[in-house]
Design brief:
Length: 307
Amino acid sequence: MENSQIQQASKKAKLLDILGTWIGVVPFFIFIFVFLIMPSTNLFIGAFQDYQGNFTFENIIGLKDPAILKAYSVSLQVSIITSLVGCVFGFFVAYAITIGKAPKWMRNILMTFSGLAANFGGVPLAFAFIATIGRTGFITAILKNICFPDAAGVLSCPMDIYKNGFTLYGVLGLTLAYTYFEFPLMVLIITPALEGLKREWREASDNLGANSVQYWRHVAFPVLWPSILGAGLLLFGSAFGAYATAQALTGGSIYLVTILIGQQIRGDVLGNPNLGYALAFGMVVIMSITIAGYTILQRRTARWLKS
């Protein structure tokens, strides 16, 4: 009798342990199911349906439309440019606060700023850029008032960026806005990889007579390359999927895929929600490839740093 009670108590304790282990992640799985799996399933189904709900490939075939291909092209161009700029700029900032032996207070400031700026996007970011370098922005006003008399005595204002062809509301302005949150994200991602470079590797390189360039070419960069590529893919995905910043900054004048999707599914009479689903399906395919590449590269980096 006592053995039976002990076994029941043991089973009850094990059950409570299992429940205690999984009860904390239940809200997470509910959230993923409601806000990721269900919308994704609806998206995939809608991409292959017409207005009547019948199966069709017309929406997928419609992606060959020149306007849609142009939207994908512009989105890819902006994403690639901003990811490259963010990678280079962010790498050097991370290098300065790790291997470059910048003061600790500077490291703390830059890491705090990177954590904030990497999550600063959407309408607030667009408003910040409009207030700063928009047509009536305060930096634009300062530059506009920097004038000098030329040889003929006529007042010239060479720093007037809008007279020189710049516009915040085009691809260049959007690239600047995206870079604002791209390079801090690069700093956050690449800093642990730079810190993972072992001092013994540099000492062994020096003992073998290698200079700094040879060390970085033959030791450091081969180790860091998967991490840099993975970070670049993550930056690309972050820019490729951005919507609110572009919409608020340009008012939809730039033909990005995300803006085109919004135009199709917002409920206008001329919109085609199923075509919007197909556009989103194309984005999901590109993002899936990006995430898969990032995951593979991160695993390779982890193996290097653990060895």
